């Protein structure tokens, strides 16, 4: 059986490295989306907890912290989480632009 000759489709990567890079870019953007959704859902849940201030949440944190301390710690956590997300977005954006440049060449 004869092999079909590969034809170049515009906008589609042809060599193995470009295909792997395109897969990495696609996976990276999916990860960014999941990461952002997780951040938003957990932030909204925490806002509800800060409004209601249930006793069991206070117990889970050890029972010795005040609500203001818990709020400050979670704000630090979300701040670091956002900075990590921002760094990851920059890496994925770089890979996306690199893939676009490879497709044009």
Q: Give a short account of the largest sheet.
A: none
Strand content: under 5%
The total number of structural domains is 1
SSE-based structural type: mainly alpha
> What series of H and E elements makes up the topology?
HHH
> Which parts are unreliable, with pLDDT below 50 for 5 consecutive residues or more?
none
Helix content: over 70%
What radius of gyration results from the CA coordinates? 22 Å
Tally of helical segments:
3
Shape: elongated
Q: What do the pLDDT scores average to?
A: 89
What is the total tally of β strands?
0
Q: What gap, in angstroms, lies between the N and C termini?
A: 33 Å
What would your notes on this structure say?
- The structure is a single chain.
- With 105 residues, this protein is an all-alpha fold.
- It has one domain.
- Helices cover 77% and strands 0% of the residues.
- It is built from 3 helices and no strands.
- Helix 1 packs antiparallel against helix 3.
- The longest helix has 38 residues.
- The protein is elongated and about 70 Å long.
- The relative contact order is 0.14.
């Amino acid at each position: 059986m004869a092999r079909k000759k590969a034809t170049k489709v515009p906008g589609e990567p042809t060599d193995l490295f470009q295909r792997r890079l395109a897969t990495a870019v696609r996976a990276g953007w999916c990860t960014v989306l999941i990461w952002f959704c997780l951040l938003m859902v957990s932030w909204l849940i925490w806002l509800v907890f800060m409004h209601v201030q249930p006793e069991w949440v206070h117990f889970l944190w050890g029972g010795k912290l005040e609500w203001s301390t818990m709020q400050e710690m979670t704000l630090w956590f979300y701040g670091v989480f956002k900075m990590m997300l921002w760094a990851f977005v920059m890496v994925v954006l770089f890979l996306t632009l690199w893939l676009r440049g490879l497709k044009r060449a």
